[in-house]
Amino acid sequence: MSQARLTVSQRTTAGVHVLDLAGEIDHTTADTFRQALTTDDGSARYTVIDFGDVTFMDSSGINVLVVANNAARECGGWLRLAHVPPPVLQVLHIVGLDDVIPLYPTVDQAIAPDSAA
């Protein structure tokens, strides 16, 4: 049995912390996801997560998203999700997180200033 893998690449675009995820988000990879959302200086008030290459997400990922969304809101920022594939969207919908965190078809649309949440 192989361990699930998650790769994360990060960049900053127009002052927004952008995470590109690929792979599975579950109990074995949630810490990698959580750490990617945490910056040393706390400057990531605005974050977009690109889920385009995520093939699976369970409740471990939901927990990470809830904590990250709450932290962003507490400091006057926001968290937005982009390019969410149907299997992940279904999980977000089941728990109602798609009503709490804004979803966008592309990263560019999520970053756009007129995309106020």
Task: Please render the helix and strand layout as text.
Elements: E1 6-13, E2 16-25, H1 30-37, E3 46-57, H2 59-74, E4 78-82, H3 86-95, E5 103-104, H4 107-111
Parallel strand pairs: 2-3, 3-4, 4-5
Antiparallel strand pairs: 1-2
Explain the overall architecture.
The protein is of the alpha/beta class. The protein is built from four helices and five strands. The protein has helices at residues 30-37, 59-74, 86-95, 107-111, and strands at 6-13, 16-25, 46-57, 78-82, 103-104. Strands 1-2-3-4-5 form a five-stranded mixed β-sheet. α1 links the parallel β2 (16-25) and β3. α1 packs parallel to α2 (59-74).
Strand order in the sheet with the most strands: 1-2-3-4-5
| Low-confidence regions | none
Number of DSSP helices?
4
Give helix and strand order, one letter per element, not per position.
EEHEHEHEH
- Tell me roughly what share of residues is in helical segments: 25-40%
Distance between the termini: 41 Å
- Helix/strand-derived category reads alpha/beta
Rg, Å, rounded: 13 Å
The major beta sheet can be summarized as: 5 strands, mixed
- Gross morphology is globular
Number of DSSP-assigned strands: 5
Mean pLDDT: 90
